[in-house]
Amino acid sequence: MLRPAAATPLELGISNLVLAGDWLHTDFPSALMERAVATGRQAANLVLLADGVRQVPLTVTTSRGPGLL
Ligand SMILES: Cc1cc2nc3c(=O)[nH]c(=O)nc-3n(C[C@H](O)[C@H](O)[C@H](O)COP(=O)(O)OP(=O)(O)OC[C@H]3O[C@@H](n4cnc5c(N)ncnc54)[C@H](O)[C@@H]3O)c2cc1C
Question: How does residue 46 score in pLDDT terms, banded at 50, 70 and 90?
């Protein structure tokens, strides 16, 4: 299924538009409110990056699990 990410509008050449919400794709495991917040931070970071302002950290879970081996 095609699902946009926070930066998809920018990648498509639509300037000054970023996305946030639980309906977006992320490259890391997330869902529901966590995804809404994570993509909100990604979107904010894209704006900060464009303005040359330091970005905020984004803490996410690993895609490979806890790594028992
Ligand atoms: C009953 C219920 C229980 C939940 N419990 C949990 C939980 O325990 N833990 C968890 O992590 N998540 C939970 N969720 C999911 C969580 O609420 C959502 O993942 C989160 O709110 C998504 O945030 P969002 O900002 O992407 O969207 P939303 O919170 O849905 O915000 C979208 C906003 O956009 C507005 N809007 C829509 N269309 C327009 C328009 N055309 N013009 C202007 N405004 C518009 C809406 O009114 C709304 O205020 C629950 C959801 C439900 C329904």
Answer: very high
What is the distance in A from the centroid of ligand 1 to the CA of 48?
Answer: 24
Say yes or no: CB of residue 40 within 6 Å of ligand 1: no
* 32-41: average pLDDT: 97
CA 69/CA 67 separation, integer angstroms: 6
- The encoded tokens of residue 43 equal 């979107």
Q: Residue 21's closest CA among 5, 10, 2?
A: 5
**48 Cβ partners below 8 Å, 6+ apart?**
54, 55, 56
Instruction: Please state the pTM of the whole predicted model.
Output: 0.93
CA 34 to centroid of ligand 1, rounded, Å: 11
CA neighbor of 23 nearest in space, from 39, 8, 7: 39
